[in-house]
Amino acid sequence: MLGYVLRRLLLLFPILLGLSLLVFLFVRALPGGPAIALLGERANDQSVEQINKSLGLDQPLPVQYGRYLRNLASGDLGSSVRTRQPVTSELSRRFPATVELSVAAMIFAIGLGIPLGFIAAKRYGGIFDNLSLVASLLGVSIPVFFLALLLKYIFAVKLGWLPTIGRLGITQHLDHPTNFYVLDAILTGNWSALGDAIKHLILPAIALGTIPLAIVARITRAATLDVLSEDYVRTARAKGLDPSVVDRRHVLKNAMLPVVTVIGLQTGLLLTGAVLTETVFAWPGLGTLVLEAIRYRDYSVLQGGILFFAVVFVLANLLVDISYAFLNPRIRYR
Amino acid sequence: MRGYFKWSAVLVVALLVMAACSSTPDDTGNTGDNAPAGATMAFGTSADPVVLDGALVSDGESLRAIDQMFEGLVTLEPGGTTVVGGLAHDWEISDDAMTYTFMLEDGVTFHDGEPLNAEAVCFNFDRWYNFPKPFQQADATYYYQTVFGGFKGNPDALYDSCEATDELTATLHLTRPSASLLGALALTNFTIASPAALDEFGADEGKINADSLFQATGTYGTEHPTGTGPFKFVEWTRGDRLVMERNPDYWGDFPGNIDELIFRPIADGAARLQALQTGEIQGYDLVDPQDYETITGDENLQLLNRPAFNVGYIGFNQAVKPFEDKAVREAFAHAINRQEIVDAFYAGQGVVAKEFMPPELDGYADDVTEYDYDPDAAKKILEDAGYTLPVPIDFAFPTDVSRPYMPDPQANYEAMKADLEDCCFKVETNSAVWSPDYLGNVDTGKYGAYLLGWTGDYGDADNFIGTFFQTKQPAWGFDNADVSGCLDDAEIETDADARISMYQDCNRIIMDFLPGVPYVHTEPGLAFTANVSGYETSPVSLEPFSLVTVNE
Known about the structure:
The complex is a heterodimer. By secondary structure, chain A is mainly alpha-helical. In chain A, 76% of the residues lie in helices and 0% in strands.
């Protein structure tokens, strides 16, 4: 098992190398450059040349890429052109917000998706099943930004129940040593801030978690239907085992394998797909950072951000593969 | 499975209870348990500041925040562009316009308790002049370079030295005459910072990192900005909020009631509006034109217009035929219906321009030559000049861009093109992505006629017509001694009234010569909740929150 994990981790390097080249070329293919993005109408030949020269953008692309790789190898992702802060510190400052939002979205998606899918399968062909099918179809097809605006309009603007922006209300004062606000509030015993942080999480988590919810529900339903028709389930029932024990031990556990795969993939996608949700909810995470970097052609931040997303995505997949071994002892990794 | 449901239900109930327990009047802007006495105001901005060091920024969001915490030697009257005293209550400009003497207010202290005196002022001027190489880039010190020409060692540098003549008198010596410097010193970029804090928190310290970029290592601009302004820095969580509090030792007037001022970056315009509607913020800038109606139709909200401080224009490059002929330029100006374009595409926030600077600015002349919409006159001018109609011209517009003076360039362009072709021109369309292609093509003189505009940096005519026409530029393709001579003379005139009259003359000369057709000034909108009063909109966005009152 350990060997397998190590091999998978080693595989990260060629993946990242290829990706770094793609990202490097991609950000340079965007129209405009940092100098014009920073100066706008005030840009002139001289100032653009001055900025490009200082950033080394006047050199041939292979030279720029070589220097980028050398820095990358030493763990230096460069500095933001705009804020002049190291990219690593920008990423680490924003990452907790994105993780917190993604975890909340996954709790929403898994917490509702698995029971919904399971019940739909158990009541196969019934009204609940059909309703859940329609709802999950709607869930996967609704654009995230539209759903986000709709949720805000209903629950914040019209009903006034929930906030629309940020991670904490303006009257809350919270020390945030870890930058995970929910955790920080618990650690510092600030219960008012804890409630407020949770309130701020609800709408963005629902907006971000709706697509995974729909997918998890559909996969759970399909997998449960498969397992329900297995001989060992019929046998377990026939020998008089309590139906809830059959459901828990035999049906649900065996149906979980594809569900876990989907959850892993969706978690990776959530982290990377938070850009729209974060923008609409002014959530200070990686998504807003990357969006800002695109706006200002902040090459280092953009490259660093995308690479970071890639690493997280690959690691999330690795965790899924490892979890198979625990869910299905027949799977052995060599 | 039943257990799973049970625990899920317990978790959900627990979360909801926690959320309900937090229902202090948190986001309404009213003071809650943890807030200090007095009003708290949250204001929605479009982005985070870059850094809170006025000398090193040029973006509006940084300047807005720095304005609340710092002050310059001079400032602009609230809501206008007239220079008034700031940290200096009085000043003298020598007859040769090469020496500026500033008499400072007595008893002013920085937020760190250090006194403001002439030495502190000179320390700041010397700091800017001696900036290390990495700070000398246009993106960091655009305004210093624009106003002062360059740094130590640069033959174009305007600054020579600063002398603390006595405790409260600072004298600036220049290398050549400049009368526009006074107005420029009202820029937020030239606000005075505490020398002790600049030193202690390493404002100029940094290292050159592996990709040759200067990386600040000090914490001055991110954690310890220290000025003399009405608000003091409290904390800044990037991407989330910048918190400031009222400076209890502020030397000047503070008529408003805000004790805690919070700037929250919200990039999305729709999200800013919704946050205002829910009361999470009490005001925001850069209202999307499509939201004006929603705001004015809601009795709990109000819309304020910022006086126009920009100009949208059609530039003519006289190096490209037939624009060297004034008859063509004049016919062009008569052929387009500017009023209709402004009415159609500016959501009531635009006014038709008749010269290259906004009416709010000193030096604006009301009696310049005007070119009304008159296609018949346009045809006659061209025919009299011997042209066969339609006259072929090329005309360009930018894509992928929205500017305050040009929210939808293509719509403007299409309306103009239709007018031109209905009258007497045959238009060949050019277009390119705004940056770098379009701006690059304009700057290098590749287009004949083109759509462009400008937003002013500071309240001086020199910043508009001086920028456009004082020196020969490929974008305009002409060298007119009357125009440049007038602007040269006005720039160094030290008598304020004489200077205004000279710039009025320049505007008359320019609009007679017609190097382009200015067509719009826009008034950007700001939105507030109805309980906010005292916000004084300024054409240059110099808007102190110390004037603002948030009512219950």
